[in-house]
Design a protein that fits this description.
The complex is a heterodimer. By secondary structure, chain A is mostly helical. In chain A, α5 packs across α6. The longest helix of chain A is centred in the C-terminal third of the chain and has 25 residues. Chain B is globular. The two termini of chain B are 26 Å apart. The chains are: A mainly alpha, B mainly alpha. The interface between A and B is large, with 116 and 123 residues.
């Protein structure tokens, strides 16, 4: 069971806030991961470099952190590939239909006090809470 | 090129934040979402730190009037709380609750796990593409500037 470390959680959050600030300051863009990634599927050549660069940074960060001597988290994910596929499809489709995810609506949207983002965040949080309750405590068995 | 470098730095910072806070680990996220179990409040601290920092940062940055490397800020212009927003958020919440991954952490975890994370990420891309291929889908969020006719 992963333990709760408030300080590292808070520091991690500040780093994410700094990242969103840096991206807005330099490129004028909102650091919404589903928006950045979703834009990769839209053919617009001028848009590709900054989007690809952001994703490379995301993927490289934990590996560089490990090389620098940091401890990267264990990834305890469902062993069920079927569940991973279903979850991935829902996350991909839902974030495009709803114009954002935890970063775009949850972090940047709330920081901008956007009513749309507040409504979206309340909705995905509520549905996720119910989903976990049902899978873990009603159906049982899910990791 | 400069934009890409700045974006790379932002991506590294974001990924570092998800690594340090352990949010790249779906078990931590599910621990937060599981109110009926051994509750782990970490995600609330991450979100609070991120929102407070971004709220302050955005305010400072927008004082400049325009970004350093682009002609204008591109902020979402939509204000209406409509059906696609809420339906999409609900569908996303279901997937998030089933696996514990949202897009950022899934990408950050890509190099830290064997098979399941790449499978999730591929399925996520497929889900995005599915939305794009719908007759009514594929509209990007409304942007304030510059307006691009489609």
């Amino acid at each position: 069971m992963p333990s709760f470390i408030p300080l590292s959680a808070l520091i991690g959050g500040v780093l994410i806030g700094l990242s969103a600030t840096l991206l807005l300051w330099t490129t004028g863009r909102i650091a919404g991961i589903s928006g950045i990634v979703g834009g990769l599927l839209r053919p617009a050549a001028a848009e590709l470099p900054w989007r690809v660069a952001f994703v490379i940074g995301l993927i490289a960060a934990p590996l560089l952190y490990r090389v620098a001597g940091g401890t990267t988290p264990d990834i305890a994910v469902t062993p069920s590939l079927a569940l991973a596929i279903l979850g991935g499809l829902l996350v991909g489709y839902g974030t495009q239909l709803g114009s954002g995810c935890t970063s775009g609506h949850g972090v940047c949207g709330l920081a901008r006090v956007s009513p749309r983002s507040l409504a979206a965040t309340a909705t995905f949080l509520a549905v996720a809470l119910v989903t976990v309750f049902v899978t873990r405590h009603v159906l049982g068995g899910a990791p | 090129m400069k934009q890409a470098l700045a974006s790379l730095a932002a991506g590294l910072l974001f990924g570092l934040g998800l690594t340090v806070s352990q949010m790249a680990n779906p078990a931590k996220v599910l621990g937060f979402l599981d109110l009926g179990g051994d509750w782990d409040p970490s995600l609330a601290f991450v979100l609070a730190g991120a929102v407070a920092t971004a709220a302050l940062g955005f305010r400072l940055v927008q004082r400049a009037g325009r970004p350093l490397l682009a002609p204008a800020f591109r902020l979402p212009a939509a204000t209406r709380i409509d059906r696609p927003l809420l339906l999409g958020a609900a569908v996303f919440g279901l997937g998030w609750g089933l696996v514990g991954f949202c897009p950022g952490p899934a990408l950050t975890a890509l190099g830290l796990d064997g098979l399941t994370v790449p499978v999730f990420v591929l399925a996520m891309f497929a889900g995005m593409l599915l939305h794009r291929l719908q007759p009514s889908g594929g509209k990007p969020g409304q942007m304030a500037t510059p307006a691009r006719s489609r």
